[in-house]
Amino acid sequence: MNIIETIKKRYIRLSRGQRKVAQFVVDNPNIVATHIASEVGQLIGVSESTVIRFCYAMELSGYHELQEKLRNDLFNGISSKGEQKVVVSKKQSNFIKEIMNEDVSNILNTIELIDPQQFELATQLLHESQFVYVLGFRQSAPAANFMTSTLKNLRKHVKQIQHEMEDIVQQLSNIDKDSVLVIVAVDHVLEDVLTIANLAKNKKAKVIALTNSTLSPIRDYADAMFTINMQKQISIETSTSLCSLINALIEGMISNNRKQYMTFQKSNEQIESSFSYIESSIRSTC
Question: d(Cα 11, Cα 98) in Å, to the nearest integer?
């Protein structure tokens, strides 16, 4: 097993800082092989000691041994990208592992960004609010759809704000102090989103925001805010960690009264089953 494979295999066990080093080594083996530890640390944005501790986590004697192994692999034509070309039969398998490891990394990093008190507040708001509004435009729409459909299967009074409708204000006409607005904004925040958030706050509603930046302007309106961590600023890479966070928030809501939500879900399934039976009967008579 070469050093790149070893890093990928042990990636999940590393600390947050060491994972940054690991990702940099995998993506830039040439740089690591030709630069000293302090320089690599500066490029990554971590301390030299973090780079050294990463080497120990890889069961190496130190940074020099890491460089030697990288140079040896590069000399033999092995790299994080080259592995896929060396063994053609394993190309697809390696690709799957690489993508899923990135998902795992994004989820693990997102976990570290979650404030437990903010999480508890958000789950309480989802549980106690009479009305839940979900907003997510453009690239944030799929996650908003996922959250809306899941919540509708567990509780009443869940509504998704539609951007294409002419009067957004009309959709929020009933929002009040007994409501919570969940804003999914993992791309550039539209002015419409901030306008809606401001409207919700003016009507005393609570706001939960899911973003991809701690500097998002939506923070000025949020009662609870969560940041999705990702290695690259590409929207598709947010989907796994974003849906995982949404799932955690919903599970947190359910934990407040599991019997209540399971009863509603069961009742909802029975209603859907009845409609399916009626529809099937109508078709069979046509």
Answer: 11
CA-CA-CA-CA torsion for 112, 10, 62, 17, nearest 10 degrees?
-10
- Under CATH, what is the fold of the domain 114-255? Rossmann fold (3.40.50)
SS (H, E, C) 124-135: HHHHHCCEEEEE
Strand 179-185 vs strand 131-135: parallel, antiparallel, or unpaired?
A: parallel
Q: Choose which CATH entry (3.40.980.10, 1.10.10.10, 3.50.50.60, 3.30.300.30) describes domain 3-86.
A: 1.10.10.10
Supply the pTM of this predicted model. 0.62
* Residue intervals in the chain for CATH 3.40.50.10490: 114-255
The pair of structure tokens assigned to 161 is 């704000």
Residues 91-104 have pLDDT tens digits of 555 777 777 777 78
Per-residue pLDDT at 278: 47
Please enumerate in sequence order all residues whose Cβ is within 8 A of that of 173, keeping only pairs 6 or more positions apart, or say none: none
